[in-house]
Amino acid sequence: MASAALLVVGLLGLVPGAVRSACAQEAPGVTNSSAGQVLNAYLDYREVSYSFDTWSLPITTRSSAFTKEPALSRSQVTRGLLKLGGGGSNEMAFAWDRAAGKLYLDLNRNLDLADDSAGVFSSLGGARESYQAFTNIPLPFQTPAGSHQALVDLSFFDYGRLNCNAAMRSFWQGKVTLEGQEWQVGLLGTPEEQRSSLETGNLLLRPWSERSKPFSLHSGALEAFPFSRKLFFGSQAYQVQCANEGQGDAAKVRVQFTEQKPSLGEVKITGVNVQRVTLEGGPYMVVIDRPEATVRVPVGSYKSSKVCLRKGSAEAHLDQRTQFSAAGRITVNDTKPAVLTAGGPLTNSVSVIRQGRKLSLNYQLVGAGGAYQLVNQDRSHPPEFTVYQGDQKVASGKFEFG
User: Fold this and answer.
1) What is the DSSP string of 174-231?
2) CB under 8 Å to 367, separation ≥6 — which residues?
3) Beta carbons of 31 and 156 less than 8 angstroms apart
């Protein structure tokens, strides 16, 4: 296949918890001489039909039966404790009856698996020996502020070693008006994170009109980001605090945004079609939507930057696995503009490596700053390629995800 020419056709076109919150209480008497207007958002516990975060739930197994158990199968029963963090008060006994496709949870934590009628769950797809998934589990846990709850899906699998994955399906959400626009604000965190404070999780901040749209912490769309008490959003800096706010029998969380006035410097963004930029690991968590070519942000050194692009319904983000410039440090001062190399236009690119009589083709979506990945990529329609030798078509095919 020497001197073979490559043409790529048909490639993807893109742009050229009533429960008590574990939220930290505000410190009394704290003031800030540069503080300005105070805005409050009141959040309610919300459950959704999709998961937005998944984590590995620590477990320990036991060989003996619990003191009281329901009628279980004679074989293929695994017993143990789910560890939600914070010591013994947040350990929960369970029995996984693989033969029956059942999961029994000790919701009231009295080590009696026979008296929790609400703690019996059936596996999706029936009984399978090595893997079973259980949905819509209201998982109670203890925090310094009282009892709390999270809605999760649990997946148990044992391929020589027992593991449990939990998928989060609940959070605290409300509405806040910032810079004249309504936003959905949400506090996100796993039970282990919420055990001490919701402020250790993530903050969801997106247009209120998009509040019903599913989101994920791992999609690259940057709708949510690590919670920080110092937030720069749009063109305004805020001190962010949250507190328990019970109203009658209902539990709420109050998130308070207090305007700040830090020193600002310029950042030049080289690309186009940028939907959201975040600068992390600096004096503020910086979040800017649809930035101009030059933006002003708090001065200081930031450990990493992320970017999401959007044009029409297509979205893409920098692939952190293959690029390093936008994931590196950026320093902003008040004398010289910093440069962030990120954005479109994006180009469909294929690298070709000859391996004996074979050609290895690797696809990348390339823009300013490195390789990008599509958000919510439709893997049923992968990029296609055609290989020609001169005018003669010699091969064609589709790329595989990986």
Assistant:
1) EEEEETTEEEEEEEE--HHHHTT-GGGSEEEEEEGGGTTS---TTSSS-SEEE--SEE
2) 271, 309, 316, 342, 343, 344, 345, 346, 347
3) no
Residue 7 confidence (pLDDT): 29
Tokens of 333: 């001062």
Amino acid letter for position 243: A
Closest Cα to residue 295, out of 264, 267, 329, 275?
267
3-state SS assignment for residue 262: coil
Using CA atoms, how far apart are residues 402 and 355, in angstroms rounded to an integer? 19
CA dihedral 307, 197, 233, 370 (to 10 degrees): -10
> pLDDT tens-digit profile of 343-354?
999 998 888 888
Return the pLDDT at 247.
60
For residue 222, CA distances in Å to 109, 229, 386 come to 38, 18, 35
Summarised one tens digit per residue, pLDDT across range 335-375 is: 999 999 999 999 988 888 888 888 787 888 999 988 898 88
CB neighbour class for 318 (10 Å; exposed up to 12, middle 13-18, buried from 19): buried
| Burial label, 60 (beta-carbon count in 10 A; 0-12, 13-18, 19+) | exposed
Listed as ranges, residues in the chain with pLDDT below 70 are: 1-35, 86-88, 143-146, 195-196, 246-249, 319-328, 378-379, 401-402
Dihedral in degrees, nearest 10, Cα atoms 150, 152, 158, 159 = -120
Token pair recorded at residue 293: 């070519």
Q: Give domain limits for the chain.
A: 53-168
CA nearest neighbour of 284 among 322, 324, 332, 336: 332
